[in-house]
Structure formats: structure tokens, C-alpha cells
Amino acid sequence: xxxxxxxFYSIQGEGLWTGTPAVFVRLAGCNLACDFCDTDYSTKFFxxxxxxxxxxxxxxxxxxxxxxxxxxxxxxxxxxQLIDALRRDGRRVHLESNGTIFTELPxxxxxxxxPKERVDPRMAARANEAKLIVDRRIxxxxxxxxxxxxxxxxxPEGNKPNNVAIALEYAKAHPGRFRLSLQTHKFxxxx
Length: 191
Ligand code: SF4
Prior knowledge:
Helices cover about 25% and strands about 25% of the residues. The chain has about 190 residues and is an alpha/beta fold. The structure holds iron/sulfur cluster (SF4).
């Protein structure tokens, strides 16, 4: 059984796929406890893998993009089975992870790693997208992990003006590699 917080249809508001319609599956629980975390990832219901795939279809019809998020989606043992079941159902699976739990993933799974602490270097190497949270500072200690990534996203925590300013200045000072990522869904009031 999977522990779930919510399943809903919206748009991806942040990162390289900003603006793309997607069904979000928020898996409950996290193996970290970041002090800036504003996500309610408590368990709201339980569902098996097949029922979860069915709920995704009910929420978003044939929408090709499904985002598994959390909490930390890879903290649950059944998540790889859910990924496979969604792929069999014709979905393109995106995974938003803190990168601490090494998991083999199919090549067609889009992995966004947003490091908070002790990232597994294999997950950093596998990441299709690296997203650093800017909370009063650029977390430069994570940059070496993503040495081969051409683009690093800088995402101001909470869209707060001081964090936006820090991220903006850093991106402008390193224009070849860094890009600003805002949580645009919050501007338009969608989850
Ligand atoms: S890793 Fe993400 S979901 Fe988990 S506590 Fe940190 S910010 Fe929250």
C-alpha cells in the first residue's frame, strides 16, 4: 500500500517544464526535516498501485505528464512499482526528489533533484534537472555534485523578494549556467 497525501491535476509551476499540464501525486512522508519546508506531506489516504493509477486517470484523463512528488517519493518501497505502472498506462513520469535515496530509474523517467543535505552522488549524476533552493544564500556546497549539468535552476524559497534578489544576482553573474526558477503556480493561485 502506498501512503498518499493528494492527487490533483494542475500545471507544473516551476523548473524546466513550467507551464506544462500535469497530474501530481504527492506521496506522504519524508526522510528529511528541512526547517523551511512548507509542504503538507502527511498521510491522507492509502491506495494500492493500481488504484493510484486509476485515480491519476480520473484526475487528469489522458494527460501524459505525471509528477511524483512529496515529501520524498522515493522513501516508499512501492514507488518503483508505481512508476512502472504509470509508464505502462502511457504516462511520462517525472520525479521530484531530494536525492538522498539511491534508486535505479528507467531512462524515460525525468528526475529533478533538489538537494537539501547528504545527496547520493549517483542521484545527482542521474538528474535531468538540478534545482537549488535559495534561502538567504546560494547553497554552493551542492554545486560540485552537479558538475556535469549544463543548467542549474535557482529557486527562491517562498518566492520571497530577498531570496529572489539573491538568486537573480547570482544568475546574472554566472549567465552560462544558472537560471531563475519561480513558483509560478503560486502567482496564479493554483496548487
Ligand atoms: S526534503 Fe522537501 S519535502 Fe522533505 S522536509 Fe525537506 S523541503 Fe520538505
